[in-house]
Specification:
This protein starts with 8 loop residues before the first strand and ends in a 7-residue tail after the last strand. The longest helix has 29 residues. By secondary structure, it is an alpha/beta fold.
């Protein structure tokens, strides 16, 4: 089983920290050339610099994936840098923690704009490039959703849950339509992973112990454990998988 991505070009949205950074590093270690995207240019360049220092190839590109024009810029920068695009990781996301009765329209629109609309636009733009230019080698799209989109929702995260449910549904249809071009589309649903947003959540009144009590494996996940699954889905080891949703949640959710 080969988990190699030699010379393939991958865009990782939201790659400037946490889970996205772990995915970017892991794909680079497997040989991919990485376009590290983040809305914060300093974060994007920091991760890209770390990859280069480790011997990989990477560039940082600042872009807000809720904007079509910035999505176009992101895709075209990848093509201009390396002349191809093989992999798209739709990881960028926001998660406003607001009760429905108090939620502002801006919070709802921003969450759906980044998490769902951004996934659509990046998939459409990258899919067009892969369909037109990649021919026999096709391409891979991996979406990062969440169990909150398919299982019992997360308290005070209505917009987030709705957006992630939308990502799961969109990805399935995307997989159906893109299969004709050899483009595989799968979705990963990480549970409680040790990232900055989760660190803020476990710092609440229930504390870490309260969250861990709900996880059969008894601990938070490591970002690398999710990145390993993403690498598998990007590689030829998963060549007969498309339209699948893979939960990585320590048993907290068992679909």
């Amino acid at each position: 089983m080969k988990l190699e991505l030699h010379e393939q070009v991958a865009i990782v949205t939201g790659g400037g920290q946490g889970l996205g950074a772990a995915i970017a590093h892991t794909l680079a270690t497997a040989g991919a050339r990485i376009v590290v995207n983040d809305i914060n240019p300093d974060r994007a360049e920091r991760v890209a610099s770390e990859i280069r220092q480790a011997g990989g190839e990477a560039i940082g590109v600042a872009a807000d994936v809720s904007s079509k024009f910035q999505c176009v810029h992101l895709v075209e920068t990848a093509r201009a840098q390396w002349g191809r695009l093989d992999i798209l990781i739709n990881n960028a996301g926001v998660a406003p923690a607001v009760p429905i009765l108090k939620m502002d329209e801006w919070d709802w629109d921003r969450c759906l704009g980044v998490n769902l609309k951004g996934t659509f636009m990046m998939s459409q733009l990258a899919g067009r490039v892969m369909a037109d230019e990649n021919r026999a080698r096709g391409g891979v799209i991996v979406n990062i959703a969440a169990p909150a989109g398919t299982a019992p929702p997360l308290l005070h995260h209505a917009a987030y849950s709705a957006s992630k449910a939308g990502v799961v549904g969109f990805a399935r249809e995307c997989a159906r339509e893109f299969a004709a071009y050899g483009i595989r589309v799968n979705t990963v649903l990480p549970g409680m992973i040790d990232t900055p947003p989760v660190a803020r959540a476990v710092a609440g009144p229930d504390g870490l112990a309260g969250w861990q009590a709900e996880i059969p494996l008894g601990r938070l996940g490591d970002p690398q454990e999710v990145a390993n699954v993403v690498l598998f889905l990007c590689s030829t080891a998963s060549s007969y998988m498309t339209g699948s949703s893979v939960t990585v949640a320590g048993g907290q959710v068992m679909p």
